[in-house]
Amino acid sequence: MNRSLISAIAGVALWTCASSTTALAAVGDGDTIPSALAPIGIEHSELRASFDFLLRRATAASATRTERLALVAFLRNSLIPHAQNEELVLYPALDSVLGTRGYATATMVLDHRAIANRTLELVSLLDQDPTEFQQKAVAVGALVEHHFVTEEEFVLPILARKMPDRALRALLQRMDAPLQED
User: Fold this and answer.
1) 100 within some domain
2) CB contact at 8 A, 109 and 84
3) How far apart are CA 144 and CA 118, in angstroms?
4) Residue 78's domain spans which residues?
5) How many other CB atoms are found less than 10 A from the CB of residue 23?
6) pLDDT of 172-182, one tens digit each?
């Protein structure tokens, strides 16, 4: 497998969306992401743009195994670690301010599990039927988009309403900290 080609494709995805990310960084009146949590919205925009780019490449009729693998690699190396970070930092904060002991975020965690499980299915389909890979990849795309919208329209606004700015900044710092390996 040509790792440099996969890295190059992922790099192009990030480069392609870099200029649009700057425009998305400003939180306007119509946005649901509170300005104090704009860095999470920016990260979501970057993840979305890269994922969308790789999804289009991986599901094209002429897609190669390398393009399909680049999508799987992005899911495994970028999106799933982002989800793990949310489970360690963001969701406990929401449960804490709502006093729900995990109930408010249970469906969000289930989304993460579904994305991880569908990613494993995509791995098993890399050398199989490209049409089935395409169908499953598009389904993952719908799940990912739904999840981002739920976070941006539910989780982030509630956190902004329930937490002072100082606590939100501390939350962002914890989210930026590298994940600890056990």
Assistant:
1) yes
2) no
3) 11
4) 3-7+37-176
5) 8
6) 999 887 655 54
**Main-chain phi, psi angles of 92, to 5 degrees:** -60, -35
Contacting residues for 49 by C-beta, under 8 A, at least 6 apart? 13, 16, 17, 20, 21
Residues whose CB is less than 8 angstroms from the CB of residue 141 and which lie 6 or more positions away in sequence, other chains included = 51, 52, 55
CA gap 68, 57 in Å, rounded: 8
**Has residue 20 been placed in a domain?**
no
Please write the tens of the pLDDT for every residue from 156-171.
999 999 999 999 999 9
Residue 15 covered by a domain: no
Whole-angstrom Cα distance, residue 102 to residue 109? 9
Is residue 23, in this structure, part of any structural domain at all?
Answer: no
Nearest one of 147, 9, 160 to 86, comparing CA atoms? 147
DSSP 37: G
Kindly report, residue by residue over 40-69, the tens digit of the pLDDT.
Answer: 999 999 999 999 999 999 999 999 999 999
Q: How far apart are CA 168 and CA 36, in angstroms?
A: 7
